[in-house]
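Thought: the user asked what Endothelin-converting enzyme 1 looks like in 3D. I have the sequence; next I should run the structure tool and report back without guessing.
Action: structure_tool
Action Input:
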Amino acid sequence: MRSIPEIIGLDEKGVVVNAGRNRTISGRVWFGTLIFLGVLSLALIITVIVQARNRAKYDNTNKNKNENDVCLTQGCISAATHQLRSIDSAVSSNLCKDFYTYACGGWQKTHPIQSFDVERTILGDIINRRDTEIERLLDSPIIRSDQRSWEYKVKTYYTECRDDYIRVNTSATYLIAIIQDPSTINGWFMFDNSAENVSQEALLKNQTLYQQMSHIHGDFGALAVFGIRTRFDEDDPTIKRLELYPAGLSMEVSDYEEDDPISTSRRAAFQIYIIEIMKLLAKDAGITDINVEDRAFTVANDVFTIEKFLADSLRRNPTSSVPRTTNLQEISTQFSFEFDQIMRHELDDPDAISILTPIYLTNNMYFTDAFELVTDLENPLFARMVHNYLRWRLVATYINDLPYNYVHKHREYLSAYYGYTLHSTNEDYCTREVIRRFPFAIQRLYTMNSAIYSNATTTVETVSNELIKSFKTYLDKNAKWMVDEQTKNMAKEKLNALTTAIGYASIASDDASLDDYYDKFFVANDAHLQNSYSYHLFHRSVLSNALKNPNLLDHWDFFETRPSRLFEYIAIFNRLFVVASGMHEPLVNAEWPWAMNFGSLGVLLAQKLFASIDGSDGRTHLPNGTRNDWWQPPTKIGYNNSRNCITDYYVNELKTLRYEVNDVLVEIQLTGEPFSPTTLRHIGALRIAYGALMKNNDVKSLKMPGTNLTSEQTFFLAYAQTQCYQRQPISQLLRTQLGLYDERTALNAALIHMPEFAKAFECEARKNQCFD
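Observation:
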């Protein structure tokens, strides 16, 4: 069984990648909610101050202590207020065994998950608030109204994306005209074979594979059979290579083959979806012959047959992270296809690469299988299948840019595919698309309108620098699992060379530079589908520029392919990225005491830093970014001993997790794998951040107001409250079966293996800590 995605949306292929938010709640409800939250926050602040002063008075009377035992700075009061909102003090007697429920019980009661959502998390809420704020900024008036300005282009693109009237009247007509243009795609079996007494089996018009791919794949950007992107050189991160990779599927690979009820229903939903879209296109194209439904069925069957073949190849030949180095001339000969010629359609500047320039080919066996199939156009049946598949991929690429009867059918398909009704609005889709397609413009728009950004940047820089220092100390004095000096020295060398990128790319700080960057993107104020096509033409120039000027964007272009990430370590650059939109409460506040900042954002960043030495990429990349497995055998043995210890805890102590699904209690036996390395990383990150706090503790012996917690206790509570979540039971059940344990399980497992936590809360320490 496969996991339900965390959040749902679409990428440029029309494939589900992410979860949509529903902001269709009425203004009155929002206004009432804001008033309620404002009153609640005020009450909490008053409670914090009163409790703090009462405790201080009590201490003066009974314990001979003065009021300074409680921190009453604005930052401490703000931090304590934040923590009080989420804790459940009713379960404090059990916090040694279940710290998560103590830390997040209040949050779970006040942050319900919507019936149409899969989950709700702290980081997810941050991203949703960011997207809401970006939507508001995109709706604001255009200040720099010159049509060459990045602001005019991005806001106009967004406005036209949301323009219902223009979409309904022109989008489908424009796409049908593209398909029927004799100079490019030159028709479709669905349209061409509508005349009376015409064959319903064979193509009336046919093109070579190159003719079809050059226009559908190259000119219009549909991902069919393969995709094209840039990738940094494996041995020299100052060079970017063109990479060809498998692409062009509409479902998960296993959905094409498995006989389980989920896969079977998904296959049926997919083919019904294609048929419905074909009927809509035929109607809008004026095709009304008696065979139109039969041809729609044929198209659906052809598309599924081709995709099933490609999926089967991927199933037999899983894609490796290590590509094959080749060149366009070599693969043109190998696969009997004009890869050397198609670059004139894929790149804005074909001279950015020659036929002998080294490129990367990901999954050579897949390409062998795929091009044996799609080049066999002498067979009329295969010719029709390839013809229909390629044109369907074009429609799927632009499906969300078409009129709403098409979008509605697409959403019905997604609901059937995932087994529950999805709620998404046009505003959601357009906001996501703008964020994904124009990340540097969005960075500029967001940061130039953020009043607290500069203070937060300084705080995050301090946190990251102190974490790196603490990490080095950890390697010197702890890290007993890292047995040999050679591995330990390389780990420290990586930390010495590690760089941080905090906030945004430098290009996003200057309007003139952004104007130049988006110079080749043209936008119209009355045609969204054309604008979407125009974006693809602009993207071709981005690919060309990436090959010619690989360091133009300070590597932020690589990080920005992860739109749902607020921070990330990328091994090939040995760099930690922290995006500006993640530098807000509840992760960081410049006024908060260090116990809060190190406990919240600090631990999350420490997890990424720890991945620089123990992650699958971190342990196989040297400080300069070249690929090399630098762990020596003694360290591998030491790490695996710790891993086995954590696995033993899950298997023999925790044993099972239970979920109530449709009023039925389901018990899942735990295996500990592949989750145990995640637990080790959490322990290591907590230890690094805790060490940084101990050297930068600005409140020291003072306690937090309201909670009466020490700085050490506040630190652990701060981290725990970044892990609060709500998730549909069926979703978490599936995740657990795949070895992805929930946040409560992960947090409690990490903390009970930490003597620092046991000391802070006076809990009984475990004898076997597993990970030093």
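Thought: the tool returned a structure. Summarizing for the user.
Final Answer: Structure for Endothelin-converting enzyme 1 predicted. The first helix runs from residue 27 to 62. The first strand starts at residue 119 and ends at 121.
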